[in-house]
Design a protein that fits this description.
- 80% of the residues lie in helices and 0% in strands.
- The chain is built from 13 helices and no strands.
- Helix 10 (213-228) packs antiparallel against helix 11 (236-251).
- It is globular and about 80 Å long.
């Protein structure tokens, strides 16, 4: 028998946030993964290959005599054009992954299960891409600055601003107001939110890391051969294995964004109780 439609707009405790995240994935797996692969997939794949190529260039220079003669060798080899292309691609693919998940859930909440198509998801993604891209960069700088201020402010802000992007999309607020709104919802729920984020991040990263095992093993043997002096360079197989593993592992991070939306609606119900306010307004109008 088909399970009932999941209601996002209700309070949830710790267990419900985790269990409903996976129940939603189970129910919506096919259309959700189709949207992810179609719209975010190409960007994630490009990022995965750029990352593999960058790693390959680093490993290929193992044993270079310049390592000893040139004190800036490591800096030159790390911060190359490939590195900055990888960073840009990673930022874009992360925004696309976030947008596809958030757009899908926004449509699910607004229209209901099975009442929208992947094309509808794409329209939201295209509409919000530029503002969300710059919001993501801005939040990154704010958190980085907070980390420079004795680390603790950065940790606090990374949790306090966790709803900013989704608030921008569903409440249509500007960046500053979306940040304030996120901090308002997190207030008195910071430690609870931290716990949720740590657990769901561990689940997503651990699940994804299983697909990175071939790359890790391959890298281990590269290190062994380099230590023995028998290293002859990185093969094409490394690029394929590394890119494939990174691609699949990245998709698992969609789990985190699903949990964030459940938690957002839970805190909105807890702190604002919009359904009750709507009923009161209707009574006053009558």
């Amino acid at each position: 028998m088909e399970k009932p439609i999941i209601i996002f707009k209700q309070e949830r405790d710790f267990n419900a946030l985790i269990s409903d995240t996976f129940e939603f994935i189970r129910q919506e797996f096919k259309p959700l993964i189709k949207s992810l692969l179609t719209y975010a997939g190409p960007f994630i794949l490009i990022t995965a290959f750029l990352g593999a190529m960058y790693q390959s260039s680093i490993y290929s220079n193992i044993g270079d005599p310049k390592q000893v003669s040139d004190p800036f060798w490591g800096f030159k080899e790390m911060y190359t054009t490939k590195y900055f292309l990888y960073l840009l691609s990673a930022a874009i693919s992360n925004v696309m992954l976030t947008l596809v998940v958030y757009s899908y859930i926004k449509l699910y909440v607004e229209r209901g299960k099975d009442n929208f198509s992947p094309e509808d998801v794409w329209r939201y993604v295209g509409h919000y891409f530029i503002p969300v891209f710059f919001i993501t960069i801005a939040i990154g700088f704010i958190i980085a600055f907070g980390i420079l201020l004795f680390i603790v402010p950065g940790i606090y802000l990374s949790i306090a601003l966790v709803f900013t992007i989704y608030i921008k999309m569903v409440e249509n607020l500007n960046f500053g107001d979306a940040m304030k709104r996120s901090m308002y919802l997190i207030k008195d729920n910071w430690w609870f939110t931290l716990g949720i984020m740590l657990i769901i991040y561990f689940i997503a990263s651990f699940s994804g890391s299983i697909f990175l095992l071939p790359q890790i093993i391959y890298t281990f043997f590269i290190g062994l051969s380099a230590a023995k002096g028998t290293f002859e360079g990185v093969s094409t197989l490394f690029l394929i294995v590394s890119a494939a593993g990174t691609f699949i592992a990245t998709l698992f991070y969609a789990i985190i964004y699903i949990t964030i939306t459940f938690h957002y609606y839970s805190l909105v119900e807890k702190k604002d109780n919009p359904e009750l306010l709507n009923e009161i307004n209707q009574i006053n109008e009558n």
